[in-house]
Design a protein that fits this description.
This protein is of the alpha/beta class. The chain has helices at about 1-5, 10-15, 20, 25-35, 65-70, 90-95, 115-120, 130-145, 165-175, 190-195, 215-235, 240-245, 250-260, 285-300; strands at about 50-55, 75-80, 155-160, 180-185, 200-205, 210, 235-240. The protein is about 45% helix and about 10% strand.
Length: about 300
Amino acid sequence: MINELIFGKEFLRRVLLPEDIRKSHEIRAGIAALDGRGASVGDGGSRDSGPVFILSAGWGCGSTLLQRLVASSGEVAMWGEPFDHAAFIERLASGLRAVTRDWPPDRHFVEEGVTLKAISDKWIANLTPPVGAFKQAHRAFFEKWFAEPAELFGAKRWGLKEVRLSAGHASYLKWLFPTAKFLLIYRDIFNSYRSCKGEEWYMVWPHYRVNNIYAFAHHWRYLLEGFLEQRETLDAMLIRYEDLVDGTLSIPTISEYLGTAAFDEAVLGKRIGARGKDKRLTRWERWVLQGICGKLREAVGYR
């Protein structure tokens, strides 16, 4: 009972996680509603070259190392947390949570072939472009921001590494880019927190800082729970950091999954900007992390 009060899942998530993350699983219902109303009709013609999304269960899980490994193929321009805590992607996706089968009403959307003269005598206060244009506009944001600049590297494919995005956000990205590939990486919370201990970030600006152990742990738990639940739906590859660095995971299986040239495995031996080398966890910190993440930690094989 004490543990539930101290480490209670729902209560602390409300306090510690921003709504754009905490309720991101609701995005999938909005996507289904939009598709049911024709958002994907006539889809195609986009620059969907199979982007690569590396999503990490928070900070200190090895996502940057994996990003460098994928980039070593020479074929994918891997961007890294652009504008990080400004949360542009989270906020773009979050609006889909409001969409249902009945809202916005069908009468709000303009019909094909209608003329301006014909609508001048109608109620047009909420006149909205066709629902398909909404999806295309979201996709164009990513294509302009990430796909076109990939040409700076001479790359035909692009990718993105993030430590804040959830499985719900991944569903949004998969909706926009059906051929996208997802690498979902996680690490033992004890070691990821030790690596980041003493650091301070915004989860989402301006109110949600990751400056305490509770926020860090709940973020890890929420993201990893979603990765485990949605990996098959996303057709994603789930990667344990420990397996990546100790040779347990065959590196060629990653490049084969992505459909790229072989990686330069020497990247794994080059530590750049490593954190946490001399940091230690106190007994109290271990107790808190175990209280919040213990069951999930054991479920993925950590003891």
